[in-house]
Amino acid sequence: MSAVTIPYKVQLRRAARSERIFRLFATTAALLVLALLAGVLLALLYGGWPALKTFRFGFLTNTIWNPVTEQFGAFAALYGTVITSLIAMILAVPVAFGIAVFLTETCPLWLRTPIGTCIELLAAVPSIVFGIWGLFVLAPVLQHSVQPWLIAVLGDLPVIGKLFRGPPFGIGLLTAGFVLAVMVLPFITSVMREVFLSTPRSLKEAAYGLGATQWEVVWDVVLPNARAGVVGGIMLGLGRALGETMAVTFVVGNAHRISGSLLAPGTTISASIANEFTEAVGKLYTSSLIALGLLLFVLTFIIIAAARLLLLRLEARGAHI
Amino acid sequence: MHRISRLTAAFSAVALIGAWVPQTIADDISGAGATFPYPVYAKWAEAYKQQTGIGLNYQSIGSGGGIKQIEASTVTFGASDKPLEPADLKQNGLVQWPQIIGGVVPVVNIPGIKPGELVLDGTTLASIYMGEISRWNDPAIKKLNPSLNLPKLDIATVYRSDGSGTNFLFTNYLSQVSPNFSKTIGANASVQWPVGIGAKGNEGVANQTAQTGGAIGYVEYAYVKQTGMTYAKLINREGKAVTPEAKAFQAAAANADWARAEGYYLILTNQPGAGSWPITGASFILVHADSKDTNTAAALKFFDWAYTQGQSMAEGLDYVPIPAPVVKLVEKSWQDSLTVDGKPVWLAK
Amino acid sequence: MTGNLRRRRITAAVALGASGLATLLGLATLAAILWTLFSRGFAGVTLSVFTQTTPAPGSSGGLINAIYGSVVMTLLGLAIGAPIGILAATYLSEYGRGKRLSTVIRFINDVLLSAPSIVIGLFVYTLVVLQMGHFSAIAGAISLGIIVLPVTVRTAEDMLRLIPSSLRQASAGLGAQPWRTITSVVYPAARSGLLTGVLLALARISGETAPLLFTALNNQFWNANLNQPMANLPVVIFQFATSPYKNWQSLAWTGALLITLFVLVLSILARLISNFFSAGQSRIE
């Protein structure tokens, strides 16, 4: 500030103007977030409209994906997306639960941060690395050891046997599910861990006071108390699994087909887009792929929105305790 | 605040310098499309860059991709092994010509079978890909290979998951030799395969076949040559078992009458001749008849260089160069039909 | 009674033992991936990786054009997304607290955070690539910037909120307008947290492949022109790993190792900074 004084009124005016400008920037930036979401939705709708208009509701139920006859149905891709994500959840949730329990209960204090960091480092590994690891390391192991074992042991059982038939390719829906499970594991683990740690001490001490074992405290006190958070974390992991592209593209087998067996190759929405978009010739083909993208976006939107709402409710409840 | 503004200044300077410096060097010629000719185009591009300093950035995304990108004019030229029909060319204002000839070869991954040992014919190959034959020790395969020890192994068919000219050549051949295949699957750049795993590009199929035990795939021969994969012999139209190699592809191309083909539209599969390889095909380049792309002239110079000076490199990978009389025809059509912003772009040498 | 107690004790032991096994499983998987990366990628880490461009199949070469492209597009994406993200977070934490709009924005932001990155790639393809008429590094940077935005908003808002209001009140008491308070008091106080957020966003986009597939495409040669397709590590790894050429596959593994090391180091660095400075944070109070 110079010694020659600027009239106070001028200073005030200038400060007010800077304030208005800065506030405008900040508000615009915040509104940009909304605009972005709207923009993405609109762009996808616009691009996917020709396909949606041509196929109507049949787009969702048609299993045929034939660029030659220009018949496009999303069902095979949807099926693959849902199945691989489901497998990922079935594999990842128990393991995540186990890790969260270990880190919050049994683990010696000095080990908690290092092990926790290691698990979180799994989240930092880029998805393409999971893809090539899945193709070059996991798939051969599955093809030569695990899958023949699954076929031999489970293939002939009455109901679930149908899930484990067919030649062991090494790649396919099951492998994709495995890789996705490893990818979403750290996310679910960290949410569960946070939620378990926020259990009020009084609840746990009361249970111990009644003579409960450590496991009973976890299963009957911590977990029910953390229910909303756990479900929220699982749904976040599910949202991640649904949208994952690179890891799945390498190992899913790229077959627009529905087969009863988990060992069969299939495809997911994001893998189809990644593989076919740059080469799709013809308005309907491109539009169908964009419509697939819209479908995926809406699907993940619903899951993520539900998860966030649950977590919000948990935070709100937490404030009351 | 000071530190942040200093940092921003520093690295925007780096980015700007990075963006400015090579403006003085000419833009790379950009092309995209077929993976069929990629090994030879990559070799040519490398040699051309060493000789002239001009880069050719070719992205092998599949013939379908090449057609799409040239139609959208996001690249200077597109490449496709499935030639566009004259009507399509006119509709999109494109000109096409054959740049190189090669062969599509079945490759297998069967323990104990060495390259060139397995013999297949068109109908058996079609049945395998239709899922009718599912094990390697099937009697139909055994009949063609009485002396081979074929294991009781599931066949894993590998096909192209992307829109591909190689796929077109392969299905075109199978449709000719198997009416059942023609009816159920048909011939095109992308078809619905009833069984098997999909892989992207010739590279993807080669890689997947090499990774999966019991697999069979189909790739352009240069991929087999470069990687030492296990190829199979095919029985051609005359009933002879032919080994895939340059002279077999040449025999198939010998009957091609390019002068009479409108838009150079010619499919070379299942050609007569005792030494002909049944799945031979040419790979085509596509450019706009009236291009807005200033790199078109540079691209044509490259293709002319490839025709004349790239022959030995192509032969080294067992491709068949386009014969000289046809090159003359092609370059005359450049002169007659190609313009950039209305002005003719290729002047006779 | 004792039988019941023993059974409960055994159940507890088994369950907790299983949880230990689960942890081992998780750690073993991380170890397996890192081991694969090192064993297959380390041999390829030679000087030529950093001095030569991507080769044709069978020839020798390196990854320098891909590394350069990745660095440029990532930094550019950060430059696009981070400032907007911090400004938006400023709104949420300083101007918009308690407002309905803020809750909505926060919610939408979280949705964007978990949106599939391939959808972002499609969005930028339609909006930028098709309008420009060609693929370019700019389009790639924009798509990365769009991914950076929600990540930065989230972490920046959390960090800004941590700054105690006593600081803001003191500044206001001295007569400073809100913008002055924010820029002279809040930002410097939160700078380590903001830096952590930026580092995490950087780590996140360094490994992204899908959005670059249809925006920056790829480039066989050295290209520093932002208006042209630019090579980048993830797409190069994608292309090389699915090929049958040994030299390409080896370069793919080396590239994967480089990216993973970079991202891991960033993540650990971000953690260290936040731990180190959060200890200092409590001193302010």
Structurally, the number of domains of chain C stands at 1
Overall form of chain B? elongated
Strand content of chain C: under 5%
In total, the number of strands of chain C is: 0
Helix/strand order of chain B: HEHEHEHEEHHEHHEHEHEEEHEEHHEHEE
Report on this model:
The complex is a heterotrimer of chains A (321), B (349) and C (285). Chain A is built from twelve helices and two strands, in the order H-H-E-E-H-H-H-H-H-H-H-H-H-H. Chain A is an all-alpha fold and 321 residues long. Chain A has a two-stranded antiparallel ribbon with strand order 1-2. Chain A is flat. Chain B is α/β, with parallel strands linked by helices. In chain B, strands 1, 2, 3, 4, 6, 7, 8, 9, 12 and 14 form a ten-stranded mixed β-sheet that branches. Chain B has a three-stranded mixed β-sheet with strand order 5-10-11. In chain B, strands 13-15-16 form a three-stranded mixed β-sheet. In chain B, strand 10 and strand 11 form a beta hairpin. The relative contact order of chain B is 0.17. Chain C has 285 residues and is mainly α. Helices cover 78% and strands 0% of the residues of chain C. In chain C, helix 3 runs antiparallel to helix 8. Chain C is globular. The model of chain C has no long low-confidence stretch (mean pLDDT 86). Chains in contact: A-B, A-C, B-C. Chains A and C meet through helix 1, helix 3, helix 4, helix 5 and helix 6 of A and helix 1, helix 3, helix 4, helix 5 and helix 6 of C.
Q: What's the gist of this structure?
A:
The complex is a heterotrimer of chains A (321), B (349) and C (285). Chain A is mainly alpha-helical.
Describe the SSE topology.
The complex is a heterotrimer of chains A (321), B (349) and C (285).
Chain A: H1 8-55, H2 58-61, E1 65-66, E2 71-72, H3 75-106, H4 109-124, H5 127-154, H6 173-197, H7 201-209, H8 214-225, H9 227-243, H10 246-251, H11 269-276, H12 283-320
Antiparallel strand pairs in A: 1-2
Chain B: H1 2-20, E1 29-33, H2 38-52, E2 56-60, H3 63-71, E3 77-80, H4 86-92, E4 94-109, E5 119-121, H5 122-130, H6 139-144, E6 156-160, H7 165-177, H8 179-184, E7 197-199, H9 201-211, E8 215-220, H10 221-227, E9 230-231, E10 233-235, E11 241-242, H11 246-253, E12 280-288, E13 290-291, H12 296-309, H13 311-316, E14 320-321, H14 324-337, E15 339-340, E16 343-344
Parallel strand pairs in B: 1-2, 1-3, 5-10, 6-7, 6-8, 13-15
Antiparallel strand pairs in B: 3-12, 4-8, 4-9, 4-12, 4-14, 10-11, 15-16
Chain C: H1 2-41, H2 47-51, H3 64-95, H4 100-113, H5 117-132, H6 137-162, H7 165-173, H8 178-206, H9 210-213, H10 233-241, H11 246-284
Helix pairs in contact in C: 1-11, 3-6, 3-8, 4-6, 5-6, 6-8, 7-8, 8-11, 10-11
